[in-house]
Amino acid sequence: MTDVSAESLSLHPPVISGITKLYGCIAHPSAHVRAPSIFNPIFRKNGTDAVMVPINCPPEHLETVVRGLNGLKNFGGLAVTIPHKLALAELCDELGDGARATGAVNAVRFDDDGKIYGNNFDGEGFVAGLIGEGYQLQGKRVLLLGAGGAARAVAVAVAYHGCAHIDIANRTLQKAAATAELTGKFTSKSSVGTTTLETADLGAYDIVINATSVGLHDDDPHPVPIDSLAFDCLVCDIIMVPDRTNWLIAAEDSGRPVHKGRHMLDYQLELIGRFIGAFD
Ligand code: NAP
């Protein structure tokens, strides 16, 4: 019997024909990239004549490499990761909302018209993850912690998808204000504000999202005290490693619902695949 488990598919080399469509995952270094080991088994399972390869591109060669790939007739597009997300946005001819909000791309598509289209699915991936895991945003009051690149993407997507209100709190206050101003431009449905952890009514939120890097390390403090949150508040982290931050573990132990960081990436791979034309 043929073994078609995802694991066995990922171990077999693809069959390359003369019309195999090529995709890349561009990074530097590239040893850690996950996209090829996710996309290739899907190509195999779907019977798609395509392959995704890692592209280890030093930053100083980025433009040459990207223009070269765009010149190939059988190259569809790229998943984009560190350190190329900002620089590659500059090389795109057109950007989607997620990329315009963040100034960064994590997917680019090379179309037959010769143009390079870029977008960033971090925020959409977060929202798709929430919905996919059975939660909703409509009518909810959201507290977002952080105002870095990932936080901006999440704020814009959460507001765009119609939460009732979002407050942004960040260590550097000016960045919270800038993120709130940006977020307001992408929504007519949600009200947007800023707050601080000292002044916020933490018990008044339905959803709290940690989009800071606090929690990456075992000895990091909790971004906000779990006990000050409403008993049914959905506690979300976007940190992927560890799989459950100490803050999420504390929330879970307290009986509150939790949403892990890996959902944001898992759900956006589908969105990236569709954008670059890999899952047509
Ligand atoms: P970033 O642009 O460097 O932003 C870091 C954020 O964390 C800023 O708001 C910063 O506040 C805050 N911060 C850092 N140290 C802090 C501290 N000690 N106390 C309070 N706030 C602190 O980073 P990023 O790209 O947005 O990434 C943020 C996190 O999201 C990272 O852990 C990353 O791994 C994760 N992430 C996850 C996904 C996913 O798919 N799940 C995708 C992208 C990123 P200041 O503005 O005051 O410096």
H/E element order: HEHEHEHEHEEHEHEHEEEHEH
Class inferred from helices and paired strands: alpha/beta
Main sheet: strand order: 2-1-3-5-6-4
CATH class of the largest domain: Alpha Beta
Percentage of residues in strands: 15-25%
Number of strand elements: 12
Overall pLDDT level: 93
CATH fold assignment of the largest domain = Rossmann fold
Provide a brief overview of the structure.
The chain has helices at residues 6-11, 35-46, 62-70, 85-91, 97-102, 122-132, 149-160, 173-185, 246-253, 262-275; strands at residues 21-27, 50-56, 75-80, 94-95, 107-110, 116-119, 141-145, 165-169, 191-194, 207-210, 234-237, 258-259. The protein is α/β, with parallel strands linked by helices.
Characterise the protein shown here:
The chain has 280 residues and is an alpha/beta fold. The chain has 2 domains: 6-121 and 265-275, Rossmann fold (3-Layer(aba) Sandwich); 123-261, Rossmann fold (3-Layer(aba) Sandwich), CATH 3.40.50.720. It has 10 helices and 12 strands. It has a 6-stranded mixed β-sheet with strand order 2-1-3-5-6-4, with helices on both faces. The longest helix is centred in the C-terminal third of the chain and has 14 residues, at 262-275. It starts with 5 loop residues before the first helix and ends in a 5-residue tail after the last helix. It binds NADP nicotinamide-adenine-dinucleotide phosphate (NAP). Residues 122, 146-151, 170-172, 175, 211-214, 216, 238-240, 261, 264-265 line the site of NADP nicotinamide-adenine-dinucleotide phosphate.
